[in-house]
Amino acid sequence: MKIITNIKEFETDITDISLLFFPCNLLEKNDDIILKHHLDFKENLIINKISLVSINDKTEIDGKECDENEEICLSEASYSNKRATFKNDDQKNETVKNLIRLAVYKSISAYSNKKFPWGCLTNENPIKIAKQLIKQGEDIAYIEEKLIEYFAVEPKNAKLVSQILSNQKDIINNENLVNLYINISSFNNSSNFINFSVNKCVDARNKNQIILGQKAENYGLEKETEICRNEGTKNNDVTSFFKNQVKNFENNEHDFSTIFFSYFNALIKEIKALKKIIVRKAYVVKTIYIGGDIALLNANELGILLEELAFLFSEFTVECGSPRSLTKNKLQILKNYGVTRISINPETFTSKTLKQMQKNFNFQDLINFYKDCMEFDFIINIDLTAGIPNENLKNFKKNIGLLLELSPDNITINANLNNKQISTNEIVETSFDKINQIVDMVNYANEKLVGDGYKPYFLQKEMIFDNNSSFENNCLVNTNIKHSDNEDKIGNSFKDNFGDLINKNIDIIGYCKTGTKSIFELNISEQNSILMACGVNSTSSIVVDDFKQQQVNPKSITQYIGQLESIIIEKLKLFK
User: Fold this and answer.
1) Cα dihedral sign for 281, 287, 292, 293?
2) pLDDT at position 75 over 60
């Protein structure tokens, strides 16, 4: 699609909305549709005129002679809004941008007869937008109506936003309160040098309990890293040394123990560096979250890690990816160190699907682990995913029924659109059909959970599944498409970021029983508080003057270990 506008500075926003409706056209070298936009200011009105035009490539249409390259109007519309009084240029530009996006969305939506749950809100978090409206003077009682009016949000979703705002009233934010995230890598991301399933990783750890240094004081990088550096510096490449070390990793369980030990050492050193920053800045650690898969840690390593995290926290969550490997002994260690919450992430309760996803547990294992966790009085969260390959609405309804029977304290409903097998020609039909199916699942979950007494309290909308990995390996990333005046480049940008585009209107929604909401999840979804993160593929962030600054750790295990010193330096710069 070619875009013509008299306001060039908003061309990217017009393209952003257009991409939702015309992906296939953007993949073609010869676009046959032009979107014309004209912005005009008249008296007390802001007027957006939109027209969709097709370029005729035939000399005859319906038996009538016509000129080639003649413009054929597909649809026309004009949208006017009252001019407001703006405090500054930034507020004016933001308002005009939103009006343009709304006009383009409404125009193409009417032409294509397609709508999205969040309307023209693509990258924005609806909760954040709603709070901005309230800050600007909008009455919270009318926030649903404003989301529908200003952003074409569907009524069900506007109501969900209102409910979440109501359930967030008791949350306190303070610039000195920080959230701490620790990633225990499963060596399973497609970006890592090891293409190894969680199942094999956990089995390898269970069979190899040999630890190169048994005492806590040996868990520094000095001895292990010195060996690696001495070998690596022969070729001036520490990463190459690690790659050679795990060349035949899948068939050598001892190599796994060695490389995991190196990773664990690096992780502990990064945590120690972060603790010094916390003391220097007088930060107060409000929440701690250990993500990944703690089943990879033996009891000794788990104790060492938790000892390093001895803060005066109010919430401590541990993500348990492989329940079969988490014994009551490990659960007792978690309890002894003050862990308050357990997150169980089966994604589905269907044993056949769990096997297809290479999970090392089945439904009965989940039930047994859930009962064990209840004995220790943890607040328990269970994740389910809508849109898992080979599962339909019927499967999802059954999963929701089983979930309500378990009645955990927290429930997180994720949405996934795995498009790995979708060809270019199938993109439009498959993506819209899949989105509609997932929306039906998410709506069904919301209806049943709210009806059972659960309260929606956070919504995360900018989480996108990686298009180049399998479902289990999907890595959540925040991607912004770069636009160009060159149509071919726009098309390539779309193709590279297809997973971003079709998931912009898919949600991650958290539900809780009274008094059990996760402060960490809420803060991360709002992106308005300090996040200090350690480990592979983790992101630290801080908001300074309404601008979010980040430091991202490498996705590769080898790069993380080899670049640890520079990673720590970058963290010092971020939290200076």
Assistant:
1) positive
2) yes
> According to the model, what pLDDT value does residue 491 have?
36
DSSP H or E run through 34: strand 33-42
Task: Evaluate whether 387 touches 418 at the Cβ level (below 8 Å).
Answer: yes
Give the span between the Cα atoms of 196 and 189, in whole angstroms.
9
pLDDT score of 249: 44
Please report which residue ranges of 138-221 form alpha helices under DSSP H.
143-151, 155-167, 198-207
Q: What's residue 481's pLDDT?
A: 27
Residue scoring higher pLDDT (449 or 461): 449
CA distances to 296, 339, 408, 517 from 224, rounded to whole Å, are 19, 30, 42, 41
**Confidence band of 68 (pLDDT split at 50, 70, 90):** low
Nearest to 26 by CA among 497, 466, 432, 422: 497
Residue type, 304: I
Residue 523 pLDDT greater than 70, yes or no: yes
What is the DSSP annotation of 283-345? Answer: -EEEEEEEEE-GGGS-HHHHHHHHHHT----SEEEEEES-GGG--HHHHHHHHHTT--EEEEE
In 3-state terms the chain splits into helix, strand, coil percentages (rounded to 5) of 45, 20, 35
Cβ atoms of residues 535 and 192 within 8 Å: no
User: How confident is the model over 349-372, as pLDDT tens digits?
Assistant: 998 888 888 777 888 989 999 999
Q: Is the pLDDT of residue 243 over 70?
A: no
The DSSP code for 481 is: P
User: CA 516, CA 253: separation in Å to the nearest integer?
Assistant: 40
Among 487, 558, 502, residue whose Cα is nearest residue 1:
487
pTM confidence score? 0.75
Q: What angle is formed at CA 187 by the lines to CA 183 and CA 193, rounded to 5 degrees?
A: 125
Question: Could you tell me which of 430, 460, 338, 349 has the C-alpha nearest to residue 396?
Answer: 349
Report pLDDT for 247. 45
Mean pLDDT comparison of 212-221, 319-328, 331-340, highest-scoring range? 331-340
Rounded to whole angstroms, how far apart are CA atoms 58 and 72? 12
Residue with tokens 């936009």: 37
Of 18, 156, 504, 48, residue with least CA distance to 147 = 156
End-to-end CA distance of the chain: 45
Average pLDDT, the chain: 75
pLDDT tens for 315-335 read 999 998 777 667 899 999 999
Q: Nearest 5°: phi and psi at 341?
A: -135, 145
b/e map of 478-509 (b: 16 or more CB within 10 Å)?
ebebebeeebeebbebbeebbbbbbbbbbbbb
CB 6 within 8 A of CB 38: yes
